[in-house]
Structure prediction request, 1296 residues.
Amino acid sequence: MKEFINIVSDPVYSFTGAIILYFLALKNMTFVGSKKFFMILATVVVLFFGWAASDKIFFTIISWPDNIPITILLVLVFWLTWYSFYKGVENDKRIESGEPPIEGTPENREKVWAWPNLVYTELFTIILGTVFLIAWSVLFKAPLEEPANPTWAPNPAKAPWYFLGLQEMLVYFDPWIAGVLLPGLIIVGLIAIPYIDINPKGNGYYTFKERKFAISTFMFGWLVLWVFLIITGTFLRGPNWTFYGPFEFWDPHKVVAANNINISEIFWIKILGMGLPHNVLIREIVGILMVLGYLAVGPFLITKYWGKKLLEKMGPARYYIMVYLILIMMGLPIKMYLRWFINLKYIVFMPEFELNI
Amino acid sequence: MKNEPGMAYNTKKLNKFFAVISVIFLISVLWMVLDDFIRPWKVVQIKALEVKKQVLQEKIEKENESINNEELNQILADIKTAEKAIADKKDVIDQINEDNAVVEKKIYVQNMNNGIYGSKAGAYQFKYEHYRVDGKEKEASKYKVLMDEMKEKFDQGRDELKALQVEEKNIKEKLKNIKEELTDLERSLKKQVGAKDLLVQSLKGTKKDFIWFLRNGPFLDYLDPTIKIQQIVLNNITDDRYFRQTEKVDRCITCHLFIGEKGYENQPNPYKTHPRIDELAVGLKSAHPMKKFGCTSCHGGEGHRVNDFNSPAHMPQNEKQQEEWVEKYHWHEPHKVPQAVYPLQYSEASCVKCHRDVERVALADKLNHGRELIENYGCYGCHKIKGYEHLKKPGPSLLKINAKVSKEFIKNWIWSPQSFNAHSRMPSFFGQSNNKQPEFMKKNITEVNAMAEYIVEKAKDYTPFEKYAGGNAEKGKQLIQTVGCIACHQVEGIDEPYNKVKSQKGPYLSGTGTKVDKDWLVSWLLKPSHYQEDTIMPSFRLSNAEANNIAAYLLTLKNKTFDGLTFAEIDNDTRDEILVEYFSQFEPISLAKEKLAKLDDHERTIELGKRSIGKYGCYSCHNIEGFADDRPPIGPELSAVGSKPIHQFGYGQQVQVEHTRHAWITAHLQDPRRWDIGVPKPFKDLNRMPNFYLKDDEIEAITTVMLGQVSDFVPLAGKKLLTANEKIVEKGKKVANKFNCYGCHKVSGFGGKIAAAFEDDLNMGPPWLVNEGHRVYQSWLHNFLRNVHTIRPYMIVRMPTFNFSDEDLNSLTEFFKYESDQLTFDNPPKIVWEPGEKEAAAKIFNELACTTCHTGGFNSDDPQGPNLHYAKTRLHKSWIKKWLTNPTAVMPYTPMPDFWSGGTESAVEGVLGDDPQKQIEAVAKYILDMGYDKTPPPL
Prediction:
């Protein structure tokens, strides 16, 4: 069983699994948003952790002081996601039957004073938060290590937990993409959401059906990409950033085959059976065309087949910004699959210009 | 219940909730404070108070025993009487005290006034000078008046003060006179109970009273705690903090509180006193006082970390201790510590860090043993190790091997040296844990055949210059035992006590009769350098008969299994297969095969032989034709192996071996091939480090040396720097060690192993060389080592003739010279006799009957001491005097009587005014005066 979990935890399977599960959940939102589903899920999770924690390696990994925030994050993400869906599903049912959402009922629209209702409870939260932090800091010592030694770096060298998703992206992209472009676009994209999303529905109340597209897209980026990559980077990456199953010993000498090749090599050498052209642009022409095609032709195809209505609704500026953000977001899973299936190193490989995609 | 309008919650409930969480908050803050306050090291210090109390009480009891109660009572009674007497003079004393008080008051006032006058005078002078400089004469003269006035007052005041001080002194004198008796008595009381009082005083310090709790309580302990971290800060030794060297801070004494105090030797750790505290370390008078060297400079570990048992990276000695620690302290392996504390048995490793360029370190027996083993086993042959470069290749030269042993023997021997001679230091390459599979064995057999063919073919011709003529084995055995062979060799079949020497400098002689050629043996014994020029084996100036006798004995040592043993034939297919593998290293197999085809059968064997010798590194230890002298040795350099990060050690599949340097080195020495077990490797990549079959104590000693080979930076101020002279001495010591002078002679406290054979009478064994540079003239020593002659005719053991190079010989004589701070050239002093001195000297010489033992040149009795006539060219006069003054202080075992009782008593009554110094001077002169100007003829 542990062996099986170790194998399916490999991103190839687990990432695919996560995507499939995510779309299954979207399809069956009524069930996912029910208390019954939560009970089942909670039982499964508790049973799994109860069983898995008896394994020494698994326990060491989740209880490592560095990793505790992620363990907490896991629980909170489960709970909060489900809770918002639960609320949304409930409201959806009400709206379908012609009732206002719960937040819109007269008794919930009644106004109360900020003092003491808000300020007092905020004080409680501050106190309880402080108590929690004190208890945490006493029970789990700060994971401080020895003075930095340039000749003896920690292996694995891991970023702070909240950056582990970014670090995981470094496996698939050059630093300028994974460390600069993508994080920058994440921030820009998050800022842009209120300007792009002009759907007035769901304002002040939970709903799923009325904002299906917006929620699905955002949650894909958040759950499947961001949270999943953090989990992978935290629990499943060991020495040398090699993948280790949750029950696998972190043997620093684990050997994995990682011989990756570029599109140019596939095209010129494997397919055409000739040497690489000397001219950089000619050499990389396939990759460049692919990237340009993805970015230039992609939006038109999307519009042609799916997005006509949205285009009309949103206007071209909003619409195309959104499409580009989505395209770049989808670039990550696309590159991940290319790496796994055809050992692709770079689509465009131009170290001459420090430009590798 | 419905809430009030505008309210989402019930306020009363909110208040209650607020109260509850406030209490929880308070508790969590207290918890945090306590968690910060309670530290493991504090517990240790509190327990230490009990330990200290107990030790102090014991000391007080002991002190009580040593106090003479009768005397004490007498003193106390006397004190009472004296006090009474003083009480009677109360009026006088009161008067004196009153006078004193008046004078003291006056002095106080005068001092105050003088201060005012002085400072004002200074201020006026400053102004006066400045106005002068500015040319304002008017103002200047005004201030000059003021200044002079104040100066005058000051001078007057000072004079008055002096008068008052005289007065005060007189008054005090009066009081002192009255109290004199009492003061004396109190002084003798202190002599009796002073030590005890001090102990009682310290005992009070161990009390945990209210003040103690206050000082050490939470929130208050920042003021003046008694329970606190103790530390040593060193400015001469640094810690490597990667980006800079910082002063070393050792806080070990926070828990090891009594490490520098005597009297805690029997306490358990951490309350123990340091062993050899006055000699080795910690003590102020020791070689490494704690305040100057700290703790981790020697012991390793993170001395600045103090929180709990695990923080300084303590390391257990063995599994048992580890279990104990896990239970007691939750011990775990330290993480990422460059150098954890050395397990106790390896403590001496860290000597090397500072004591560089020396071969032996005083007080470090295990380390010295380890270094000796490395020299004897020849680890330095294959592995470059700093400090061993001067030694010759550990194995014998194979350049003329055909004259010595047969080809068949070579093959059998290479295959398994230990099965021929269990004590062999030639290690085993074959039949090991990684190559005993049949397919590897087959290849190995082929390689061994080829190597032997190569060695035999390339060896030069050598014809022994002497033929074995047969001899008396029994006499030979006697010679081996007595002439000095045992200083380097252990020999099979020799008797007690000669077999107790157990020297490992030369090979253990066993099976010699099976191994070597008869004629070669005789020639070798007669003149070793004839066969191998750079051999360290000396000539004992044996006669032909003696050499034949010794040879006769050695030839009786046979190895029945090896006699007539034939080695498996070479398998040509296997040979070709291995060769193709070699050839195809950089070329495709087809080319390699072509290359092979060009060679004929014999060439192929020789080619494989050469390749195999290169592969196994035979040339690292043996001189072999075709292998250049500067070819780097086969093994990796070990000069800094003690600093090699643990993750750079390869463990293969040996999961049971601990991940520490010492565990790896130990495991490696136990079975060097173990790292290959379970790892699928092709034949050519198999680990080649041979097996020496070391014993556990040997492994521990060698591991100690290896752990000490560190690359740590030690500031110049922190390490032992050799002076120019000491460097010369160390160079000489290296030569002395290379030629095994230490095998026979105990030189400055080191060596003299052969003494085990002379336990009954050390005087019959090779002499100790104590301050040899002071004893003999350098020119004499130089001449003697080239042309050995008889000094002590009563000895059977011989000083051999070594084949020293000029450089070696100079190093040796300089070693003795600088060790004793002597001049290079000096001549015997001119003897000038005082009137009557010579006659007196002759009288003493006769009365003490010197010629009973020192018969040489006086009578024909058997001599028991050196011939005194040769002292003139050999001995320094000052040394002769030192010797005569106290011979046993120089050589404890000498039969030479101590005539002058250490220079304190006259040896012969009524001569030279019974002054022992004059008598000794006269005898020394007398001996030199009679001396010959020549040395005895060389042997």
Notes: The CA atoms of residues 443 and 459 of chain B lie 24 Å apart. The interface with chain A takes residues 6-9, 11, 14, 17-18, 21-22, 24-25, 28-29, 31-32, 35, 241-243, 335-338, 645, 647 of chain B (CB under 8 Å).
